[in-house]
C-alpha cells in the first residue's frame, strides 16, 4: 500500500509574490487523515505490530494448576487456568449453577458461598488458592429432602421474588447467623448489606434470619 498523500488532498502552491492562505478546516482534516491512514496501514501491513506464530501460541497458553478441594462434602480434583474464579469453577467445571454470577465484581453478593465456614464472594476468589478447602454452596445446604432451616424460613416468610439473589442471600445469612450477628434487625441489615436484592425483599429477608436465629 502506498504511503503517498493523494494530490487532491494537498492545496496547490501559492503563486510567486502571493501570501500562502491558511488551509481550510476541510483541507486540514483531509490531509492529516490521509497521512495518518497511510502510516498506520503501512505499519500493519509491514508486520510491525504482528506477533510471530510462536509468540501467538505462547500468549494463548495460560498457566494452569491442579487443585483439590471438598465441595458439599465431596472431594473434587481438577486442573484449571490459574485465573479461574471459584464461581466459574463451580458453575462451569462442577455444574453447580446455584451460585449466581451477578456483577462479577464482588458488589452484589449473588455468588456468596461458604469456604471453611466463612462466607466469601466466589467471583473474587481464585480457585487455585483453595487447595484443601471445604466449600459449601446452596446445593449443599439441604439434608436430603429436608431444607436447611434458613431455606425453610425464606419460604415461610416469602423472602424472595425473582429469586436470582436468593442463593447468595441464604448462604450469606447462614454465615451471618453463625457469626452471631443477629441481635437486632438493624444488626442483621448491617451484616447482610453486602447482598443486594433488586426486588427489595429486605424486610422479609431480615424476618427469615430472625426466625432461623430463634429471635422470632
Automatic annotation (TrEMBL):
Among Pfam families, the record links this protein to: Fer2, Fer2_2
Low complexity bias located where? 15-24
Q: Which SUPFAM superfamilies match?
A: 2Fe-2S ferredoxin-like, CO dehydrogenase ISP C-domain like
Coiled-coil ranges from the UniProt annotation: none
Record key words, sorted: Iron, Metal-binding, Oxidoreductase
Presence of the UniProt keyword Metal-binding in the record: yes
2Fe-2S ferredoxin-type domain spans which residues?
65-141
The record's section on PROSITE patterns has: 2FE2S_FER_1 (PS00197), 2FE2S_FER_2 (PS51085), TAT (PS51318)
Region of interest called Disordered, as start-end residue ranges on this chain: 1-24
Database matches in NCBIfam families: TAT_signal_seq (TIGR01409)
Q: What is this protein called?
A: (2Fe-2S)-binding protein
